[in-house]
Design goal:
alpha+beta, globular, Rossmann fold, five-stranded mixed beta sheet
């Protein structure tokens, strides 16, 4: 079994890191997220991860992983950014903030897409006091 040639969920069926589910073979975003979350310290640790915006909407196995993350109160905040924020890609991204052992079930959503300047590449965020950033907290 070659574990270095890429993500294959079949190789990790009994792995405790993936107790919330197994990401599909073609999209390993949640596999990386679950690996990182597994190593976060219980009750005290927190992590932030940059992911493509699409991870919020994909179905099947990724939907089940999201559902389990929400059900276990792991997701604290999701910050949405516009495309062209990074040199390596033009796609919109999110920053997802997660932790373990949270009692609260709410999730803070922040739309930072309107808070950037298009004057130059990469776009620069404007986080001044008059920033049009929108945020909403939802009880899950």
């Amino acid at each position: 079994m070659d574990l270095c040639s890429g993500w294959n969920p079949e190789n990790f069926k009994l792995d405790k890191r993936f107790r919330y589910g197994h990401a599909p073979q073609k999209k390993a975003d949640y596999a990386f997220l679950l690996h990182c979350l597994y190593h976060v310290k219980d009750k005290e640790g927190i992590m932030a991860i940059v992911l493509p915006h699409g991870v919020l909407f994909r179905g099947a196995a990724e939907y089940q992983i999201r559902k389990n993350l929400l059900g276990n109160h792991n997701i604290e905040t999701i910050i949405g950014f516009p495309g062209n924020m990074f040199f390596a890609t033009g796609i919109p991204v999110i920053v997802m903030v997660l932790s373990k052992g949270r009692d609260e079930s709410d999730v803070l959503f922040i739309d930072a897409s309107a808070s950037y300047g298009k004057e130059r590449f990469p776009h620069m965020m404007d986080i001044g006091t008059d920033s049009p950033m929108l945020s909403h907290r939802y009880l899950i």
